[in-house]
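Exercise: predict the fold of this chain.
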Amino acid sequence: MTTIGTSSTTAQVDSYRFTTTLVNEAKLQGAKVLQGEVIGFSFDSENPKMINGVKLEDGRILDCEYAVIAMGAWSASLNSWFKYEIPPNRDIDIELPITGSRAHSVIFQPPEQILADNPISAHALFAKAIIKGSAKELELYPRSNGHLYVCGEGDGVALPYSADLIKPNLTSTKNLIRFAQTLVPILSEYEIIREQACYLPYSETGSPIIGHLPFFENLLVATGHSCWGMLNAPATGLSIAQLILTGRSSIVDLTPFGLE
């Protein structure tokens, strides 16, 4: 066993609390959160390099000065939008090289008595084992609410049309459960409250794609962070905001992350 961090060098981000806090803080600053399925853009009739609206499936068009594609593994939807929404007299060939990789996770909840007698340690655990000839990896994260989040068991099942359609492979989640309970036997006494899956966005280069898209003057992208999206999100968001407001990112050199 190797220690890769301590309480003075490492902290854990609770993804749900982190994202909801950011949204709530943005609302307090005057931001509005609108929900809808994006199907394309509308363009400035006098300047086809300028997007002036975001088209939604229900027929609404949201006026905009800038548009940012930050849809994780679904960011590649952009590729099909331009096949149907080509500005006048322009032949646009944009391919955002993003794919999704499915990863599974399980959430354990300890009985109240066990939690009272044996509070969950704040230590995260990264384990690897050879089971029946194949390598298996598992990551185990305690949550401040007493839950234990366990993830691993990735595969290459195709990305569904919508995040609402994601379904886990129950064989994969059961493998995670067995691995976790073998590694930490007391988990056999915990309740399993969720078996789930998500898709991690990967780029062809393995690096995030951040910055302006070719051809357009006001279309930006921020995606492809794989499993590091939550940790890289603050710097990515600030860089995109600086690009919009000042034309350049002063906190991160975005040259290695561009498409141009």
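Check your answer against the key: Residues 229-246 form the longest helix (18 residues).
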